[in-house]
Amino acid sequence: MPKHGKSYNEVKAKVDRTVEVSPAAAVKLVKELKRAKFTESIEIHVRTGLNVRHADEQLRGTIALPHGLGKEVKIAVFARGDKAAEATAAGADVVGDEDLAKRVEEGFTDFDVAIATPDMMPVVGRLGRVLGPSGKMPNPKVGTVTMDVAKAVTEAKAGKVEYRTDRTAIVHLTIGKVDFPDSQLLENYAAVIDELMRAKPSAAKGKYIKSITMASTMGPGVKVDPTRIKDILEEATPTAA
């Protein structure tokens, strides 16, 4: 296990890992625990009770966060001709067909979201080894394989993010930056929880959301009460920063 430095251990000592706090309290505490000189992101890690070895218990979809992610989202689009021009006009950062696929095969992954037109999937499909592990493989189920590339690019730029369970049935998502007002972070958090509850697989058995941890990029995790899934925004005080 990697050893943490002195500053990390100092802020970790301020967290009682045996206590689950409300989402509002978690946001305040995570902000207090930030320690990096750059503007850290705030992430949540939701452990589900799903058995992801079963296809009908896997969780995957997209969500448009009310206040975005607070960062520039880099978009790569695999398209030809008019669709390539549409993607460029919509603000895609890199657009190409076989040439872009070759760059990715050679290790180019400097983008957050990959979008492809259906006719490009025979080419893009060969990139699974590179794009799959990082969750960047275009998928029609989440709207990243589409002929409406302009809409897909616009939504991704506005903060639409993909979520999925990993091999251990955990969903990892960023909900904003530490300099977001508390109310905006809570609205993004509430939107994520609402979406996860809406998308609960019908085959799910037992406890669905087992635990939730919130943390900044460089800070320790804070346990959030997983039963607080309603009236989340009412926890925020009018003076929340």
Automatic annotation (TrEMBL):
It holds the Pfam family Ribosomal_L1. InterPro entries: Ribosom_uL1_bac-type, Ribosomal_uL1, Ribosomal_uL1-like, Ribosomal_uL1/biogenesis, Ribosomal_uL1_3-a/b-sand. The keyword Iron does not apply. Keywords: Repressor, Ribonucleoprotein, Ribosomal protein, RNA-binding, rRNA-binding, Translation regulation, tRNA-binding. This is Large ribosomal subunit protein uL1. One of its GO terms (cellular component) is ribosome. HAMAP family: Ribosomal_uL1_B. It comes from Paraconexibacter antarcticus. Part of the 50S ribosomal subunit. PANTHER family: 54S RIBOSOMAL PROTEIN L1, MITOCHONDRIAL, LARGE RIBOSOMAL SUBUNIT PROTEIN UL1M. Gene3D superfamilies: 3.30.190.20, 3.40.50.790. The gene is rplA. The lineage of its organism: Bacteria, Bacillati, Actinomycetota, Thermoleophilia, Solirubrobacterales. The keyword RNA-binding applies. SUPFAM superfamilies: Ribosomal protein L1. It comes from the Bacteria. Belongs to the universal ribosomal protein uL1 family. Transmembrane segments: none annotated. Binds directly to 23S rRNA. The L1 stalk is quite mobile in the ribosome, and is involved in E site tRNA release.
